[in-house]
Design goal:
alpha/beta, Rossmann fold, 4-stranded parallel β-sheet, two-stranded antiparallel sheet, about 15% strand, globular
Length: about 230
């Protein structure tokens, strides 16, 4: 019985979805590998693309593509990049006509959250911010035992509360929610419960200064080679 194929874009060498062709040419979809999503799910892809015909979705996608375009510039030396993510956030929110932004941040990044709030307020946005410990709910509420407290078994610790963060921002009716440094898993719950558009400014990585790609770049070095070890 043949092995069932799954979409595996990470192993593709063809890039049939992004060919280097002229503006009047057509992509050669028949050159896509057998594990390409376009080969496995052609009807799904075709049906889902129609979602962009909805005016509000089409305009949002257009603005996102314009933001992408404006982050590059052509020079005699080639294409260069222009804006860091924070500037992109300011520019894109302005493009969308957003006025009220919600910030869901980790207490461990309180200083960064304060800096971001100042930047966004100086650009004319109104900011509603919610800390991950909002609610002051003890960790034993979710079955965490004292010996599993970060500060030790004698310390009282608040659980991270991403659902409260999401619902507060939902209630505030912000135009866009920004995640800053939420823990893995907690960020998942926040996204699940948030009913407004969400973007991520930074994710939690306690070791690399919240830059998880650093470990990928070092995965073939002696320092993080353990990441490639088979288990």
């Amino acid at each position: 019985m043949p092995e069932k194929l799954h979409p595996t874009c990470t192993k593709c060498a063809k890039l049939a979805c992004s060919p280097a062709i002229g503006i009047d040419a057509e992509p050669a979809f028949d050159e896509a590998p057998s594990f390409c999503p376009m080969a496995l799910f052609p009807d799904l892809v075709s049906d889902v693309v129609r979602e962009y015909d909805r005016p509000e979705v089409k305009e949002f996608a257009r603005l996102a593509s314009m933001q992408e375009f404006e982050c590059y510039e052509r020079t005699d030396q080639g294409i260069r990049t222009k804006f860091p993510r924070i500037e992109e956030l300011v520019q894109f929110a302005a493009k969308c006509g957003y006025k009220r932004l919600g910030l869901a941040f980790c207490l461990g990044l309180r200083r960064e959250a304060q800096m971001l709030t100042e930047i966004l307020e100086n650009k004319g946005f109104e900011i509603a911010s919610v800390c991950c410990k909002s609610g002051a709910v003890a960790k034993d509420r979710i079955g965490v035992t004292p010996d599993q407290h970060i500060g030790g078994p004698d310390s009282w610790e608040s659980m991270c509360n991403p659902i409260v963060q999401a619902e507060v921002l939902n209630t505030e009716g912000v135009d866009l929610a920004i995640m800053l440094g939420l823990c893995i898993g907690h960020d998942t719950l926040f996204i699940k419960y948030c009913r407004v558009p969400v973007t991520v400014l930074a994710v939690k990585d306690r070791v690399t200064g919240h830059n998880p790609l650093a470990a990928l770049y070092l995965s073939r070095s002696p320092y993080y080679r353990r990441l490639l070890a088979k288990e």
